[in-house]
Amino acid sequence: MQPFFRALTGVLAVGAFAAGVPTPGGVAADAVPAGRSSTPSNAIVWKPCPQDAAAECGSLRLPIDWAHPSGSTFDLAVARRKATDPDRRVGVLLVNPGGPGDSGVDFAVRRAKAHFSADVQKRFDIIGFDPRGVGASQPVRCSQELLAQRPSAYPRSQGEFDQLANFNRALRQDCRRHSGPIFDHADTLSVVRDMDAIRRSLGEKEINYFGHSYGTLIGQQYAEQYGDRIRTMALTANIDHSLGAREFLVSSAVTAEDSFQQFVTWCDRTRSCALHGRDVTAVWDGLLARADRGEVQDPGNPDQALTANVITQVAFKAFYGPDWDGLATYVARLGAGELKERRQPQRLRISVPG
């Protein structure tokens, strides 16, 4: 079998390269030690959110550099859904959906009601925020012209790798030039300081926290810094921030490989699996080989070929659920060449993490 590691490493490498250039939360345009600051936070002025008047939106003015709290500032975007049963309210639930680059404001306004149980919504004010450099919190800005020139994130030779590395260096300088000082202070520890400023502005002694993916790094580092200010914390799709980049890639790939083997076992014993009775590993290998040769068309765009890396990203996202039935159907359709209609399950829509 071609190891799932092969393509997954490429997928995760995108995030590793992006870690040096925080563009996922940025928009196109023509590390400081974290101590316990005594700097007072301004109160948030809440107004109905444009997307949903039942939610409240506001901003909090904070230092760009927490080491110099009297210096330049930026506005941190915040959103709130108040507890639906005030008499049973426990406190605030800060949330971060990950990315890095996903909008916590959007999560609180549009997704929180579907994500959290009715009981959670009764008892907690759900607070989302766009981390600095993301969304409405002074987003990192980069040249659209330069972004249009980016090479493949999946180099196949030393020359292609060097080309990608050179592009990333140029992009780093371009984004710094367009973004200003926030670019060099869009780090996780600064986000943790911002999160505690939110706590203070809300007048809370303790917070509850939910973090997903990159949001787990924020939660872990908040716990290290301000452990006595946490009531409860839930972390999903956890990332161990004690790992270096290489160890992170390897451990993630091993975990994905294990998920793939579970998918194979499930399909072997489940008659409803679209690949039941077939050698799933061989089907997978053959599909990736065809994709490498440019022979697999995009169901939504028959004129465009799907790469092995894109197909693997779909599988990687399906493992989150897991949505094994949807993945089997997707692979079977691509393998059978049934490409005229796009009927992929919602969770299998191709989406590169931000």
Automatic annotation (TrEMBL):
Residues 92-289 form the AB hydrolase-1 domain. Residues 1-18 form the signal peptide. It comes from the Bacteria. Keywords: Hydrolase, Signal. InterPro entries: AB_hydrolase_1, AB_hydrolase_fold, Serine_prot/Carboxylest_S33. Belongs to the peptidase S33 family. This is AB hydrolase-1 domain-containing protein. It comes from Streptomyces chryseus.
